[in-house]
Amino acid sequence: DYMYQLRIPLKPVSLNSAYMVGKGSNFTLSKRGKKFKDDCQDFLKEQFTKKPLGGKLKVSILFQLYSFREKIDLDNMLKLTMDSMTGIVFKDDSQVYEIYTKKEIGMKRDEIHIIIYEID
Question: From start to end of the chain, where are the E strands?
């Protein structure tokens, strides 16, 4: 099994602030959400220089947060982070068969640590 480690030195954005409801109840990325996704993709492109992975994947993501005052749901941080990897690290997030996610609060800095495993 192959493993890839990636690090994004950003504070994750919650789904609640990443999307806004547009016309006809369609969700669109907010300015904050778009900036986070663009910045994420820049960091990912620097670290993952292969073609996007094509097979089944297992993803492990550790969200490290600096502030104790942060009230951000784990599942809300996951969506935009996964979307940021689509087309860069893997072709589509439907390839992901397992996800392990954890958050730690009170860290030295805001960071997102990602490990991708190719599984059979």
Answer: 3-8, 19-21, 27-29, 57-65, 96-105, 111-118
Cβ pair 62, 104 in contact under 8 A: yes
Which residue, chain included where needed, has tokens 């502030």?
67
The answer to whether the CB of 96 falls within 8 A of the CB of 90 is yes
What are the pLDDT digits (tens) for 20-29?
776 666 777 8
Q: What is the pTM of this model?
A: 0.88
pLDDT digits (tens, 9 = 90+) for 66-81: 987 767 888 888 988 9
- Number of other CB atoms surrounding residue 116 within 10 Å: 20
Residue 108 neighbours by CB distance under 10 Å: 7
- What are the strands of the beta sheet with 57-65, ordered from one edge? 3-8, 111-118, 57-65, 96-105
Give the Cα separation of 111 and 5 in Å (integer).
13
